[in-house]
Structure prediction request, 1154 residues.
Amino acid sequence: MSKILRINTRTKEFHFEELGKYLGLGGRALTSRIVLDEVPATAHALSAANKLVAAAGVLTGTIVANSGRVSLGAKSPLTGTIKESNSGGQFAQKLAKLGILAIVLEDKPEADAPFTNIIITKDGVKFEAADELIGLGTYASMDKILAKYGPKTGTMLIGPAGETCRMAASVQFSDPEGRPSRAAGRGGLGAVMGSKKVKAIVLDDAGCGMLPAADPEKFKAAAKRWAQILLGHPVTGQGLPAFGTAILVNIINEAGALPTKNFREGRFEHAAAISGEAIAETITKRGGKVKHGCHTGCVIQCSQEYVDKQGKYLTSGFEYETVWAFGADTLIKDLDDIAMLDRTCDDMGMDTIDLGNALAMAMEAGIVPWGDGKAAVKLLQRVGDKNDSLGRIMGNGTGFAAQAFGVDRVPVVKNQALPAYDPRSVKGIGVTYCTTTQGADHTAGYAVCQNILKVGGDVSPTGKEGQIEISKNLQIATAAVDSLGLCLFVAFAVLDNADGVPCIADLVAALTGKPYTVDDVVALGVACLKDEIAFNTAAGFTAKDDQLPDFFRTEKLMPHGTTWDFTAEEMQAAKVS
Amino acid sequence: MSKILRINTRTKEFHFEELGKYLGLGGRALTSRIVLDEVPATAHALSAANKLVAAAGVLTGTIVANSGRVSLGAKSPLTGTIKESNSGGQFAQKLAKLGILAIVLEDKPEADAPFTNIIITKDGVKFEAADELIGLGTYASMDKILAKYGPKTGTMLIGPAGETCRMAASVQFSDPEGRPSRAAGRGGLGAVMGSKKVKAIVLDDAGCGMLPAADPEKFKAAAKRWAQILLGHPVTGQGLPAFGTAILVNIINEAGALPTKNFREGRFEHAAAISGEAIAETITKRGGKVKHGCHTGCVIQCSQEYVDKQGKYLTSGFEYETVWAFGADTLIKDLDDIAMLDRTCDDMGMDTIDLGNALAMAMEAGIVPWGDGKAAVKLLQRVGDKNDSLGRIMGNGTGFAAQAFGVDRVPVVKNQALPAYDPRSVKGIGVTYCTTTQGADHTAGYAVCQNILKVGGDVSPTGKEGQIEISKNLQIATAAVDSLGLCLFVAFAVLDNADGVPCIADLVAALTGKPYTVDDVVALGVACLKDEIAFNTAAGFTAKDDQLPDFFRTEKLMPHGTTWDFTAEEMQAAKVS
Prediction:
């Protein structure tokens, strides 16, 4: 039976704990339950009272395709809400195989204490000085980590942004090649890790095997069914492997919902130049890789290896939202500049969505010219200098940068920057931005499915009808998926396949040897959301916080001429109760 | 009859308006009513939808002693609440004498539009380019304004902090000598003025007389009674004229409530060196002025002219809270350094309380050593360089600086920094910090009276009993005083004199020619608070926001060993309903 590993970051004491009351949970459901139960909702997010939880999902550590997501949870310094941010990479599978369902980082060292690396093997937990990594980007840090601990280790680590507790700091995760290209980007959890003076957690699962299933035959059969469901859907089986998530650039631009120049327009004249098709063409021409899996066991392979003009690796996990944030939203049209901005965020350990929007704030204020990718890269690199005050500002994200620069056009909900879909023209996702427990977040209830992609239903994107229902159902499904340790992209296939959720239930039942039904999957998601809402309520959030900035109401978005017309009260029905 | 002057800052159109539904209001009651009625509660504070209201009080422009306060109101960029911040200086009396009860600055120019000065005389309103003042400190700006518009004008203006929309930017007001030493400091209203691209409003009341009273004889008699009430009380008649408000340094230190080193201790070992007594001695020795009135008609004269070693003027309005913020809270013990920090805030146009606390945040982060006054002055002067990012950070106040520096010990309520009384040892003021509509603010309900000074009652400062009642009653009384245009210090005398409030009622009745009773005074305060609560509720504030940071609960304050032990819910009774 997997255990919870509690680590006191001040005293360097640790112990393994039975799951106890947390039995049956995993991933997001587990991180959120622990945060709700153990972190005072009014605590400062960077104080000793906060905890950073890293959890494997219910299905992680097994042969189940795309089950390698790791959930990070804490009170967010960016939003003040509870936060779960999950990531691919090698960490989750190795964690589960080490017999650890979750690591809980507790307390915090004195302000002048040195940083520590935590090394976990089947033989135990070691603390080592992190001095030689401090101030380094995550790429250089990973080189040293791989050299020291071996190429088969899996690592979560922070960059300079996290070390200095910037509110938009990510936690990065190593991919199968040992590159820190995967991120739990949103909500500043890297700052929480930095406040606890932990630079990296390195997992070495040598000598550990897959988690054993209670019913191996049934489990194997269900896992095979599961892989076929994923491979059989046009999005997960064809679209994502061929073009990655940036396939959405042209689609969302065509839909008139690609936020351009800080959400002023719904179409970007240079969309084609930064599209998934253009990325794939560029990669192919230069000899990079169009397909790449972020973790062992991924059958979707939406990632890639984007290379520069000389064919040298530049970045992976070059997502649609990143391409948008550093492209259309800031009017940058040079793909290499955008790729360099993505790499810079991974290297400094920062969320690309909040940094892209923060860059737009800097452009609004004239700090950097609109569309100037080279200047943008230089600006973001400044976050790496801990004494650079402009770097401090940028590293703290969109809302903070807007305040620093006196900008009043600030696309945030609960201080988290809006992602790549204008809510005036994709209203289902707008409902999610407003009502999710996480601050503006597209992954929390990806209504782009029904609004634009026509996966799992067909709801007109510009009207109000049906949006609350699809957002609510997707929020529940997402919470379940995030708790199981599954990649969210499985949802495309699951929404369109009647056997999707039953197959998931069969997987859990065969793994645990206990009955598990479709209703249990739904209940897992609902319970998770209830926990998160309870925390946020205790922290002081109300319906009034579930709203977009006023300019979405007052400014029409072209080409459709739509405005945001939901009241906060209307949308409350999108939240579980 | 006085009028409201509305100015569109984008189109430069203006018009005078009858009071209409605003008849009977003045000062804070008027600014808050206008903001409630006309500013959307969810608007961005720096957007065109916000309005900046400058209002004279009900009794302003008359012979009534200490009736020269001006109220500024808007939605606060610092707190997100409604905000009223009032100031002495010459502005209010001249405004009233010009027949203007309030100026309402509306809309906002384009981001690249130049700044304007607004000149108001009995003949009308003129807009003039402010180019030659931009980037200048308020002292240098005032020199040019006096040279151009004459020494008898009265001015409200912003410094570089306001021009660049820093969230802790004040609006400064000229005193009888034409120095910009008076401030509406709190809540960042200077940023609102800056967002509207107005550098200064200059009033020339040449040719205008006092406001006529409906019953001149009764008015004159009541005004005489009023002056005698003020002069007859030991605080307003003796203590404040002799030592200014800094007389409190030794008193609050003795009470164990002088927050020291970012609220770690209740006593400062160098309190005597920065006390009102030390200030008076220094001024006397150097040939400055111990007594000084901030506006014509002040009989209390709590201000002073603090001079440097060469006897040259350095600052006025050198208040207890400023001395504390730049003294005990940051461990600076050199009075000249503290005076220079006060002057720097006045010159840059920044709130001393928020900047003092922000300086403590910088010290927590090691940006400046604790106690280093010279380095502190240099740091604050950086706010004057609009491109200096460390200046941007400091100018945005305590909460912002803490986030920029990753500090988790942040003494704010609703993002406004705590003033000079530790709420663990003066619990009545703690109730006010939490429950006032304004964010942490001592003036909104100065329970130090009953807790420490034993004026208007005697309530033990360290217990819970009686605190809610005194805070509530003081909040109502203060709202009335702020609406009448009276200096808050009249409260010392009024609380101890049974004829205090009746005399105020008689003054209003004789001025307006309509019946006005003690109940009407109370009703004025209650209505004002209700308006403010209504705005804040619409903006999304709840009881959860009425609370101190967690460290006040968890850390005992020495020497009394007290913690903050009110729940947010308990304190709701301190709010009018």
The longest strand of chain A covers residues 100-106. The interface with chain B takes residues 40, 42-47, 49, 77, 111, 164-167, 191, 194-195, 364, 388-390, 392-393, 396, 400, 403-410, 539-540, 542, 544-545, 547, 549-551 of chain A (CB under 8 Å). The longest helix of chain A spans residues 518-539.
